[in-house]
Design a protein that fits this description.
This protein is α/β, with parallel strands linked by helices and 420 residues long. Helices cover 46% and strands 15% of the residues. The chain contains 15 helices and ten strands. The strands form two sheets. A seven-stranded mixed sheet has the order 5-6-7-4-8-9-10, sandwiched between helices. The chain is flat and about 75 Å long. Bound molecules: guanosine-5'-diphosphate. Guanosine-5'-diphosphate (GDP) binds next to helix 8.
């Protein structure tokens, strides 16, 4: 591309030789596409260059473009511009970020649904009902002499109840949705030799094709990403917690505590073939107040009778018999890991709320609806009832970005990666 006034034909891909304007040297032969406004991602004129993938070449190309007075985009700037030009709404923009960060197929699937506008589609009828409710209340205010008829009040209250239920149902999906997006930290804990590493490896085996190596947070522990029923799990083996001579340090209680504090769920391992020792009890003391599964390992060996009385606490989610050696009981263990956290079938067709911001707004909508419902029951002035209803409408609008304050927008787009 020697001629600076060269403008490629819109919506056509063209193979072009690109020269450095300063030296005339060939930089690359690249594909160039001109997306003419408004038919582009942002709704503005966009030129896209598809170069060969060498990092050196790409850096060179970028330097040349920057030398021509261009600048790098801010994180999320393209998506923010698309939002500004009405190419997508806020929850769709957030879905793009989630799609890029998705760690499992199920998470990709959910982000795609949101990107397709499903959350906004589900919210629209709810907003419509809210407006339907607001109108008669506003007219009652307008014509003060007419009190609202009882039947109408009952009808409005019933509509508000239905709305509240629907909002609560949507909000309830966040318990699963959050896990789908952010994953779960699961830590294997137990005294030395109970089989932590063996269980760790067994849990990874079936996932070999999709595991991603994750650098351990400390050099003593090993973490790997796996997927259980679509939920990304960061599994940490604390086998390295043991150290040599000092018996207290040997138990690694301090580091075990840190691992426990950081975990969403703990798998507390016991060697079922051996007598429970004070070491087992010390580990359990550290675990008992956090959600945990008790895994009785080495169930292929004759059980030591006393381990049948492994202590449990209110935070014990399940007790499972497993054998890391034979691979038995591991399906029960996998099910126990995810079951308590799944209130919805993640792979089913239902839309899940995956974003804490959306969840918070739904909760605030529900609170406002409830308050208006009560005030209406007490026959207080329509003006007060309307405050809650407008608040609910504003919260729903904030999910899709119609009424989102600028500082919230900036905070959201700061979470995007650069170039998106
Ligand atoms: P860690 O120190 O807790 O990580 O324990 P390891 O996974 O290193 O296992 C300690 C020993 O127990 C090894 O010799 C394993 O082969 C053995 N082991 C682990 N799980 C089982 C099991 O289910 N059955 C039997 N029989 N041996 C096991």
């Amino acid at each position: 591309m020697r001629n600076p006034s060269f403008v490629p034909e819109p919506q056509k891909v063209r193979l072009t030789t690109i020269h450095d304007p300063a030296t005339g040297d060939i930089v690359d032969r690249a594909l160039i596409t001109y997306f003419k406004a408004p038919h582009s991602f942002t709704g503005e004129d966009i030129i896209e260059l598809s170069c060969h993938g060498s990092p050196v070449l790409l850096r060179n190309m970028l330097d040349i473009i920057l030398s021509l007075n261009a600048r790098l985009a801010e994180p999320g700037e393209f998506t923010l511009r698309a939002l500004g030009h009405g190419r997508l709404n806020l929850s769709q923009a957030e879905a793009i970020r989630d799609l890029i960060n998705a760690k499992t197929k199920a998470a990709v699937h959910q982000a795609q649904r949101q990107l397709g506008g499903e959350l906004s589609r589900q919210l629209q009828p709810l907003k419509d009902i809210l407006v339907e409710v607001i109108v008669p209340l506003e007219s009652a205010l307008e014509f003060v002499e007419d009190d609202l008829p009882e039947v109408l009040i009952d009808e409005i209250r019933s509509k508000l109840s239905t709305l509240g239920t629907r909002i609560a149902q949507l909000g309830d999906t966040f318990k699963s949705g959050r896990l789908l997006r952010d994953g779960m930290k699961v830590v294997l804990i137990g005294k030395p030799n109970v089989g932590k590493s063996s269980v760790f490896n067994q849990l990874l085996v079936q996932d070999r094709a999709i595991v991603t190596a994750v650098a351990g947070t400390t050099r003593d522990s090993l973490s790997e990403g796996i997927s259980l029923s679509g939920i990304p799990i960061l599994l940490t083996d604390t086998a390295g917690l043991r150290t040599s001579e000092d018996p207290i340090e040997n138990l690694g209680v301090e580091r075990t505590r840190t691992a426990i504090a950081d975990a969403d769920l703990i798998i507390y391992l016991i060697d079922r073939s051996q007598s429970l020792t004070s070491e087992d009890s010390a580990v359990f003391e550290a675990v008992r107040q956090n959600p945990h599964i008790i895994a009785l390992n080495k169930s292929d060996l004759p059980p030591f009778p006393q381990s049948a009385y492994a202590p449990t606490s209110e935070e014990t989610i399940a007790v499972v018999n497993i054998s890391a050696k034979l691979g038995t009981g591991l399906d029960d263990l996998r099910a126990a890991i995810i079951h308590p956290f799944i209130s919805h079938n993640i792979s089913s067709d239902g839309l899940l709320v995956t974003d804490a911001r959306h969840f918070d707004l739904l909760k605030r909508t529900g609170d406002s609806l409830r308050s208006s419902h009560e005030l209406l029951g007490d026959r207080v002035s329509e003006e007060l009832v309307l405050v809650g209803l407008y608040d609910a409408l504003r919260c729903l609008g904030e999910i899709t970005g119609e009424t989102t304050p600028d500082d919230v927008l900036s905070a959201i787009f700061a979470t995007f990666c650069i170039g998106k």
